[in-house]
Design a protein that fits this description.
By secondary structure, this protein is α/β, with parallel strands linked by helices. It has three helices and three strands, in the order H-E-E-H-E-H. The longest helix has 16 residues.
């Protein structure tokens, strides 16, 4: 079975509500942002964490990025701007699983 059956995924929720819920439950929020300085592998995924990704076309707004605890990026080489959102999430979640082993 895929991870969709093993980890909580919250869809169709207001952004502020999700951020507030994470704060209330001491869950660190990481927003994927191709312009972030911190790379995804430097994040401490051993602690309670939430990964937030935006749409492929627009990403997250500046206000949404500021509402999270930290922003993270997947380093890109050459002239590539970003990864497909599903691929980026998969790469980041793989690192989280690796750190938790």
């Amino acid at each position: 079975m895929g991870s969709a059956f093993r980890i909580p995924i919250w869809c169709s929720v207001e952004y502020a509500e999700a951020i507030d819920w994470c704060d209330k439950h001491q869950i660190k929020t990481y927003a994927a942002d191709p312009k972030a300085v911190t790379t995804f592998d430097k994040a401490d995924w051993k602690k309670a964490s939430a990964l937030i990704v935006g749409s492929e076309s627009t990403g997250l707004t500046e206000k949404e990025l500021r509402a999270t605890h930290d922003t993270i990026a997947v380093p890109m080489h050459g002239n590539l701007e970003s990864l497909n959102v599903a691929v980026a999430a998969g790469v980041i979640l793989y690192e989280a699983a690796r750190q938790r082993r």
